[in-house]
Design a protein that fits this description.
Length: 215
């Protein structure tokens, strides 16, 4: 009987792990070559692909690889990113997306031979902000925290000290596609690697406030 109970517990634990694994996530613009091993995603980024809407350049593209899950409330998400960046605008990072007109992508981007921490926020049209790095880095961790109608974006080089790089608006009380994206607007593709992807549920802030005031 004890052995049966232990077996059942292990089976349930396996189901939980499987349900949270990358294999259960979905592709938007699936790349030709990709692989998942444990909690690591590698991909050959699709050439001539990107996410951008209208402003500055005058075109709209919505065709880069994006592996995602859906979250309906508030959450914290982070991932470790490495890439074999080659040409201008090669990029990899996190993406939070409601639809083709409302999304945020944040990560690392290779521009004119230099590494940049990059964030694009799109509501009808896109904007772009960058932090130029003094030297190349082996990896960067990007973290996003969605609370109410705001998303705070942080970066780290050691997964210990995080620095905020952007605070932006995103419609609250709306399901969000959240996951890992990479794009190669100018080149013939490159290899990107995502490790330690993790989403943590955050209790709804308005509900917590209501409970506090209605004990």
């Amino acid at each position: 009987m004890k052995r049966y109970i232990l077996t059942s517990i292990l089976a349930c634990a396996t189901m939980v792990i499987s349900a949270q694994s990358l294999e259960r996530m979905q592709w938007f613009n699936e790349p030709q070559n990709w692989a998942i091993e444990g909690n690591t995603l590698t991909m050959d980024v699709t050439p001539q692909s990107d996410y951008w809407r209208i402003s500055h350049y005058g075109f709209t593209v919505d065709d880069a690889p994006f592996l995602y899950t859906i979250r309906g409330g508030e959450f914290e998400v982070k991932v470790k990113i490495t890439g074999e960046y080659k040409v201008r605008f090669d990029q990899a990072g996190l993406m939070l997306r409601i639809d083709k007109e409302n999304y945020i992508k944040a990560g690392i981007e290779f521009v004119d031979g230099k590494y940049n921490l990059s964030a694009v926020v799109t509501h009808k049209t896109s904007d772009w902000s960058v932090i130029e790095l003094d030297k190349p880095v082996d990896a960067v961790w990007i973290k996003a925290v969605r609370r109410l109608d705001a998303v705070e974006i942080f970066y780290s080089f050691d997964d210990k000290k995080y620095t905020m790089m952007r605070n932006c608006w995103l419609q609250d009380n709306t399901p969000v596609m959240v996951g890992m994206m990479a794009a190669c607007p100018d080149g013939n593709g490159f290899k990107a690697r995502f490790e330690e992807f993790k989403i943590k549920h955050l209790p709804d802030a308005r509900r917590l406030e209501w409970l506090k005031n209605n004990q």
